[in-house]
Amino acid sequence: MQSTSEQLLAEGEARAQAVEPAGSGGAQRNAARFGRALARFVKEYAIVVVVVVMFIVLAATSDVFLTWTNISNILEQIAPIGLLAGALTFVTIAGEFDLSAGAIAVLIGIIAGKLQPLVGTWPSLGLAVVCAIGFGLINGTIIQKARINSFVTTLATSLILAGIGLVITGGFLVTVAEPSFADLGSGSFLGLQWSVYLLIAFFVLGSLILSRTTFGRWLYAVGGNPEAARLSGVSVQRVKIIVFGISGLAAGIAGAVLVSRTGTGQSGDGITQTLAAFAAVVVGGTSLRGGQGSLWRTALGVVFLGLITNAFNLLAIDPIYQSIVQGAIVLVAVGADALTRRRAG
Amino acid sequence: MSGLRVELRGIAKRYSGVAALQDVSVSIAGGEIHALVGENGAGKSTLGRIIGGAVSPDEGEILIDGRPVRLRSPRDAIEAGVALIDQELALAPEMSVLDNVFLGFERHHAGWLDRAAQRARYEQLAHRLGLEVSPRTRVGELRMADQQKVEVLRAMVRGARLIVMDEPTAALSRVEAQRLLQVARDVRAEGTTIVFVSHFLADVLAISDTITVLKDGRHIKTVPAEGQTEDLLVTSMLGRPLDKLFPEPRLKTREAPFVLEVRGLTRRPAFEDVSFGVRSGEIVGVAGLVGSGRSEVAHAVFGADRPDSGEILIGGTRVRPRSPRDMVRAGVALLPESRKEQGLVMLRSVLDNVMLAHSDAASTVGVLRPGAQREAARRVLSGVDVRMASTSLPVSALSGGNQQKVALAKWLVAQPRLLIADEPTRGVDVGARRAIYDLLVDLADRGVGVLVISSELDEVLGLAHRVLVMRAGRLVAEYPRARAEEAVVMRAAFGGTAGEGTEAGPPASHEGSHAYAEHV
């Protein structure tokens, strides 16, 4: 079958060349140009197209999808992973990795849970988030000052953080009985949980930082070409340390939301959450090479993965297939990126 | 076996709508060295890559030994007897020379390597090409010229009867380049055809049998190398005679204050006890062989490397730079040697690149003012005469000359006191070169002290009011413009008897192993 079609193509080409070389060449050229433009557009905005298609399909196939309850459910579900993904987006643009974001979130839950009876709800959550920024800055400082690769450093620190959690809890659950502790994760305002507002605030503020501040410019430059950034008078070390601080902050907020929602903290390395967040960054189209990417991409990546989970629920598909589907999507996203890059080069 | 004969008919190639080649027809005789020359962007590399099978033409046909062929992949090309040696070598640096040479074409019996046979074949070829390194050496440890030879060996092992070499001498010192040209002649002597893509006209004239000149993607002429000169070639490459290459340097006063003074600057082993000054409005050239410590001094002055000892004074005030950031604030700018690796963030837009060093200039407490940013960028870009549809284009979309102008424009958002230009015209075509010289002279006119470091002696002599010569990490001589003659400066750089100036320092230990990359 394949050979027949090839033959047809070859014949078609030959005939076109034989009959009217100039004219058909021009038409082919235009078609090729259009094809390339289309490919570029699809590559650039693939995630937008995919999310819109997914949205339409779900709206058409399920009566429940477009209800406020369902939409607000989706947003609430994606809030913690979304915050982690936001954290990772900053780090990825800087050309680094942060495997410890999930571990920070988990430990922050434990710290907040332990502090709550001592200092009250809001101070405990606030202090825990401050700790998270500290953990991030420590990550960044180790990576920059000791010049250890960030993948290895954050792998190590995520183990250490998990260990600290284990030491603090002694392996038990940390349970908070105080009802006000649940406000951050479950309390709502105008029909949406506070966590959703936090998520939106982080992405809006983060986007502004990326696009509208000198720090944002430095961040892209540092990720794209650290040597050129350094020779332009940008302090590469400082930018990268700050980026890990931002990552810690977002991970801390995610951890605070989670512990407030469940009322319990439990030690662990949070690696599942880290990887899920990372998948959202990649699916959104932020390049792992650094120097490229944006938060709106990650936001759509998070929404897309959230819609998939929702689709499994609404269409009553057995959830045991869910991670297979998500894995396949990540592969497609990365593969498409690599393919278009190879074409261009 | 004789070399392949190649016939190109009506070759055309476009990249995102821009024509790289249009209707190019060239005949390449079997067993000759056929050079492709032209300015950057003339399409010579694209044509070379089409012959080498790395790029497929949009239109036209390729005949090898009279038979039409379609080279769709490197594998097709290899089977047709064609090998391409790219500018970026395709070697595995961690593997041995021998493994690289036979990569993909290992001699084996049922998967077991026949090491003796490989070794024997290697010795035979290496001997013929004068490659004197152990086949067990890691390729990453070899000098550039030897790595090039490894590529040639690989082509021969694959039975190539046509080798396309893309800018093979660009990264080599003069002496190494000469050796490589000899290798090319040896390969020709074996009957293999060579397509030699280069913008080093001296190299081209030295080895080619036939020369094809391209301009703006079109074929200008194909002529026997016999009887051609650099001038003739440049005239056809430009389509007009080359204007005077250097602008007239103007110097208002010899008594202007120093913007930079360096005293006893030392960073072992790169350089030692270097002292000099640059006055406001003065262009000081630094000549010296590759590896003599020129760029290292520049990096130390810019705060990018920390010196062991010595003093740096900017505008008469002693500074102790801990990072380039400190020096940028003090009004020092560096146009680095490699614009891709050190000068520009290729993925980012022209705007972002131009504003990178001075993003504070059009921002309020760290928040950018987009209008002011665009305005500032437009102002400096028009100052360096870069025209483009939009400053939000990625900088990688520009030509080499325009990229270099952007790298320079970045330092003009706020006028520096001192500009250090390291190889300001590397990889820049002849047309844009003059524009960059004009800019440097203009800046000096406006009171900027300019320090020009270059491997092209013409450039140093043509621009500078004063020439410093470095050799083996020491500043060995200084000449005013009037006395800076080519032979004198060369002698000082190579370590012969420097007739005048301040002769000092031990003789260079690696004398003659590096050389000028200028077109002799």
Question: How are the SSEs placed, and which strands pair?
Answer:
The complex is a heterodimer of chains A (345) and B (520).
Chain A: H1 2-19, H2 21-61, H3 68-93, H4 101-119, H5 121-145, H6 150-169, E1 174-175, H7 183-186, E2 188-189, E3 192-193, H8 194-212, H9 214-224, H10 226-230, H11 236-262, E4 264-265, H12 271-284, H13 295-314, H14 322-344
Antiparallel strand pairs in A: 1-4, 2-3
Chain B: E1 6-15, E2 18-28, E3 33-37, H1 44-51, E4 59-64, E5 67-69, H2 74-79, E6 82-85, H3 97-102, E7 108-109, E8 112-113, H4 115-129, H5 144-157, E9 162-166, H6 174-189, E10 193-197, H7 201-207, E11 210-215, E12 218-224, H8 230-238, E13 258-267, E14 271-279, E15 283-288, H9 294-301, E16 309-314, E17 317-319, H10 324-329, E18 332-335, H11 339-343, H12 350-355, E19 363-364, E20 367-368, H13 370-383, H14 400-409, E21 418-422, H15 430-445, E22 449-453, H16 457-463, E23 466-471, E24 474-480, H17 486-494
Parallel strand pairs in B: 3-10, 3-11, 6-9, 9-10, 15-22, 15-23, 18-21, 21-22
Antiparallel strand pairs in B: 1-2, 1-4, 4-5, 7-8, 11-12, 13-14, 13-16, 16-17, 19-20, 23-24
Helix pairs in contact in B: 4-5, 5-6, 14-15
